[in-house]
Amino acid sequence: LGIVNGEYNSTTASVTLSKDTDNQQSLSCEKTPVPSVCETGSRMYRILSYDVQPADILDECRAACNESYTAHTDLTSCETGCTTQVDAVNTRQKQLSELDSGSDSFRNQVQMQQMLSHW
Q: What residues have CB less than 8 Å from 116, skipping those under 6 apart?
């Protein structure tokens, strides 16, 4: 899963995921111990993206996971959900930038709407 280290004590749990972008591409919620909690982490990331500076979203998402979960497997799954969204956002932004920004063609508008509707 790209986990660098995991520490657990009776009052708090903390898991640090690798920041290696190559590992992020192989991360998915289906590969985590608790996929539903991973999906919750993904949703938290998307919600935070509306209120938090882009550079701080991942850290805020991981902090929310730490506040919400104490079990090691749940915390790991939630933080993986946060991390998977970094790659998803980057891919989506790349796809949007590849559209001909100068063209208002119907095809480009439909493609952009399809990409945004999956967000």
A: none
**Averaged pLDDT score across all residues of the chain:** 75
Of 88, 115, 20, the closest CA to residue 107 belongs to: 115
Which residues sit opposite 14 in a β-bridge?
Answer: 7
Residue 59's pLDDT is 96
**61, two tokens:** 């998402």
Q: What are phi and psi of 41, to 5 degrees?
A: -60, -40
Distance CA 74, CA 81 (A): 11
Distance CA 38, CA 75 (A): 9
What is the per-residue pLDDT across 25-77, written as a single tens digit (0 to 9) for each?
Answer: 457 899 888 999 999 999 999 999 999 998 999 999 999 999 999 999 999 99
Q: Are 27 and 78 in contact (CB under 8 A)?
A: no
What does the alpha-carbon distance between residue 26 and residue 1 come to, in Å, rounded to a whole number? 8
**What is d(CA 70, CA 68) in angstroms, rounded to the nearest whole number?**
7
